[in-house]
Sugar ABC transporter permease (Ensifer oleiphilus), 288 residues
Amino acid sequence: MEKTWNNKAWFMVLPVLVLVAFSAVIPLMTVVNYSVQDTFGNNEFFWAGTDWYVEVLTSDRFWDALTRNLIFSAIILAIEIPLGIIIALNMPKKGLGVPVCLVLMALPLLIPWNVVGTIWQVFGRVDIGLLGHTLEALGINYNYVQNPIDAWVTLIVMDVWHWTSLVVLLCYAGLVSIPDAYYQAAKIDGASRWSVFRYIQLPKMKRVLLIAFLLRFMDSFMIYTEPFVVTGGGPGNSTTFLSIDLVKMAIGQFDLGPAAALSIIYFLIVLLLSWIFYTVMTTSDAQS
């Protein structure tokens, strides 16, 4: 018997889809318009073609910022994904500890990005911050305002503190969905803890890990508020990521043409890398 599909439910969400598309398409078209034209004020525009794209792609400023973005995202993923898995594996599955752990894990995610930056900006200060004052008392020369390495370490630790909980919650959701029969069979076979993780838990977490990987990559690659509040892109340009450079170009220098071209290139890079990660991970999942 052929199964029939009822698509009437789409009419319920159609107004929302239209509203979202309308609110997204108009700003995108405005950016595209600025990226191919030049203006000298008075709302007069002159066709520039691909000049702004060429200027952005041939500048060391763009490639340096892109390199910093890629390095930061790679470090974040290398730390948060394994750390999130380890924490999720050690969280209780039953009892009163479950809601307590879930609430504690969710707390950092509820803090707005600008507040997180402000917290760590004060936390790392040598004069009034607990972290900075403690490190100075221990004889460690720490100053995220003047030392690029300290600035990077501060941003990485801040991001790990803020967003590892997301990976933990996703991994925990994948773990609790595993039927007890798998663990009982593994216990009967005398499987080690590593074998249980390798052949039972990890395969069952692949899909949630894909979601966690993509979300954390996109968030870390497009990070702006936290480093802007903490370091402002400094010291020098050591923490000037593409997002910060884009805002400086658009608002600080008012170079709307190059800024629009950079934003389009930025969007395409995120889209391309996310598609590559998704394709590679889903292909490996299908082959396993």
Remarks:
- The two ends are 32 Å apart (CA to CA).
- The chain has two domains: 28-58+255-288, 69-240.
- The first helix runs from residue 10 to 35.
